Each structure stands twice: as C-alpha cells, then as structure tokens.
Amino acid sequence: MNADKVLDAKGLACPMPIVRTKKAIAELESGQVLEIHATDKGAKNDLTAWAKSGGHELFQDLEENGVFKFWIKKG
C-alpha cells in the first residue's frame, strides 16, 4: 500500500494518535493517503470515527505484531 506520508504513533495513548493524525493529515492534499502506525488498542475505533466525521476515508486497517496500521485518504 503506497502512502504519501507515514505517521508513527506507536507508544502513544489516547488521544495522542488522533491529535497527531489531525496534524499530519492537514499537511496533505485532498486525495492523498496517510499511513498511521499505532499500538493503542482504542485507535481503531477512534480513527474510524474521526475519519468519518472529518469526511476522510479509512480504507484499510490491519494488525501486525501488535502494531495497528491504518490508511486514511484525505477527503
């Protein structure tokens, strides 16, 4: 999966993954993709809700060795 920017939010607890995601996605153009790596178990629900409320598209997520990876396309 190709991303325009990768955000490392591993080791951060809620709400920091969302705070960092907001900042990172603001630096992207509409249609570009942000890849987020997080270890907070709540990140999936948080990022899904945040993307939907912000008009962005969370189009893929997976867990790999305790790291949750998300790909969000900026709306």
From TrEMBL:
UPF0033 domain sequence ranges: 7-31
Listed Pfam families: TusA
Family of this protein: Belongs to the sulfur carrier protein TusA family.
Family annotation (InterPro entries): TusA-like, TusA-like_sf
Protein's name in the database: UPF0033 domain-containing protein
UniProt-listed PANTHER family: SULFUR CARRIER PROTEIN YEDF-RELATED
Annotated source species: Anaerobacillus alkaliphilus
Matching PROSITE patterns: UPF0033 (PS01148)
